[in-house]
Design brief:
The chain is of the alpha/beta class. Helix content is 56%, strand content 8%. It has three domains: 173 residues, Rossmann fold (3-Layer(aba) Sandwich); 71 residues, Helicase, Ruva Protein, domain 3 (Orthogonal Bundle), CATH 1.10.8.60; 162 residues, Up-down Bundle (Methane Monooxygenase Hydroxylase, Chain G, domain 1). The chain contains 19 helices and eight strands.
Length: 500
């Protein structure tokens, strides 16, 4: 219909032109009418029953789990925006900037949003990459516009404070002088000027918050007192923190009675808040695939595997390869269980990501310091797979490459921390050849220990590896039952041998 009307209109205009009528005013009037019609059409909304309304979610500190220390420190730093008269009486200078540092996915952006809710401030955010362009002066102009926008937003919302949040500030706040052009330096200079030029009595007051996982490369002028007065570490959550995050993320999910969130928190050692959120989401997706009404514990176990290693791949190894992988993973599992009972949670030979199989271990506790014995035990576990292959097949495979890299890193840690036979050393004065020789000595000693640990189980490894090939995966409890029965048989055989 629209095309017919346009065609008819063009034909009428041409006809009037041919007979000598002045058509220019008519064309302008028609164009104006069409523009008004289009504008009004865009402003129309759907019927009341189907209208979509943008919802603005306010993030509170109680919505953030696993960061009790960081939240407490941040709230103390934000109190100057809430209790200005009180701090003014004590002669306290309000802080101008707060830098949040820590690994990705730990909740730095959420904490900045929660800070705006906590202080009832306007919130304006930007990424460090938004300021950098190839044209000189663009980044500095965007910095000025960001601060003007923050103050304007606060006035518009009727608030007396605003928070400017800059994510990935290391892009624009890196040390000056190392770039090929001056755009980075000019942008940083403008940011320094804006932060240093803020008046503590200005209304609305502006607080700068920034996040980075590379605080070591930031310019010293940016970190000095009077700019970023506080640096708050937002680290990976510990076990209690992970449990808190899991409770928050599963609050609205239908969990089966067998779900043990504390056990999941133990298995997810080293997970960030973002990974825990993904874990819960993946468990719900698995339940959807299985057409289950409740999310079971096994779905969380598979979700942990997926977050750690990735989705199952379409690889189809031969039976001989699967048997070798099973023996390899059993070597890791037996070594881990002998070093620390109850540490094995799951053994699988299902290919995920770049791995043909893996053993998931449960740490006894979140550790921050390690002794030489603990490091040696980790090396034993890392070398257990290759040693098991050698015991069963009389040779090794390329599957132990990553294990050897991990073992070498642990051995180098022992040397650098003064835990080797060399004693205390200075890394900058230690020749690489001597370091490599000491690392090889440590690995040779620990490999002998790993062989002593695995040799008593040589007869049972092959048969249980066949069982794992058939089942594809076994849990820690089943593995420990087999290990206990194998120990009993070995002890009985040793008793008979001594009696004869």
């Amino acid at each position: 219909m629209k095309e017919w009307l346009i065609g008819a209109g063009v034909a009428i205009v041409l006809f009037l032109g041919v007979i000598g009528v002045q058509v220019l005013p008519l064309v302008l009037l028609a164009g104006l009418a069409y523009g008004v019609y289009t504008l009004m059409g865009r402003r129309q909304v759907a019927p009341s029953g189907s209208r979509e309304v943008a919802v603005r979610h306010a993030v509170q500190f109680e919505h953030i789990g696993g960061q009790d220390h960081a939240k407490r420190e941040l709230m103390e730093s934000l109190d100057f925006l809430r209790y200005r008269e009180k701090i003014k009486k004590l002669g306290i200078r309000p802080i101008k900037g707060i830098l949040l540092t820590g690994p990705p996915g730990t909740g730095k952006t959420m904490m900045a949003k929660a800070a705006a809710s906590y202080t009832d401030s306007a919130f304006v955010s930007a990424s460090g990459s938004e300021f950098v362009e190839m044209y000189v002066g663009v980044g500095a102009q965007r910095v000025r516009e960001l601060f003007r926008k923050a103050r304007a937003s606060a006035r518009k919302e009727g608030k007396d404070s605003a928070i400017v949040f800059i994510d990935e500030i290391d892009v624009v706040g890196g040390k000056r002088g190392g770039h090929s052009h001056q755009e980075y330096d000019q942008t940083l200079n403008q940011l320094l000027t804006e932060m240093d030029g803020m008046q503590t009595t200005q209304t609305p007051m502006v607080l700068v918050m920034a996040a980075t996982n590379r605080a070591d490369i930031l310019d010293s002028a940016l970190l000095r007192p009077g700019r970023f007065d506080r640096q708050i570490k937002v680290d990976l959550p510990d076990k209690e923190g992970r449990l808190h995050i899991l409770r928050i993320q599963t609050k609205d999910k239908p969990l089966a009675p067998d779900v043990d969130l504390e056990h999941i928190a133990r298995e997810s050692y080293g997970f960030s808040g973002a990974q825990l959120e993904s874990l819960c989401n993946e468990a719900a997706i698995i339940a959807l695939r299985q057409n289950a009404a409740l999310i079971e514990q096994s779905y969380f176990r598979d979700a942990v595997d997926k977050v750690l290693m990735g989705e199952k791949t379409g690889r189809q190894p031969t039976r001989d390869e699967l048997l070798r992988v099973a023996v390899h993973e059993l070597g890791h599992a037996v070594a881990s269980e002998r070093m620390r009972e109850g540490s094995v949670s799951h053994i699988t030979i299902a290919p995920r990501g770049n791995a043909l199989g893996f053993v998931r271990q449960i740490p006894e506790a979140d550790a921050y310091l390690y002794t030489k014995e603990q490091l040696d035990q980790q090396i034993v576990v890392a070398l257990g797979g290759a040693v098991a292959e050698e015991l069963i097949f009389a040779n090794r495979s390329t599957g132990a490459q990553n294990d050897f890299l991990q073992a070498s890193r642990l051995a180098r840690t022992e040397v650098m921390c003064g835990l080797s036979r060399m004693g205390i050393v200075a890394e900058e004065h230690l020749p690489e050849s001597i370091l490599d020789e000491e690392v090889r000595h440590i690995l040779a000693e620990v490999e002998t220990r790993a062989r002593e640990v695995l040799t008593p189980y040589r007869l049972g490894l092959r048969s249980y590896a066949d069982y794992i090939v058939e089942q594809e995966s076994v849990d820690g409890a089943s593995f420990r039952e087999w290990l206990a029965s194998t120990r009993a048989l070995e002890a009985e055989a040793e008793t008979v041998l001594l009696a004869n």
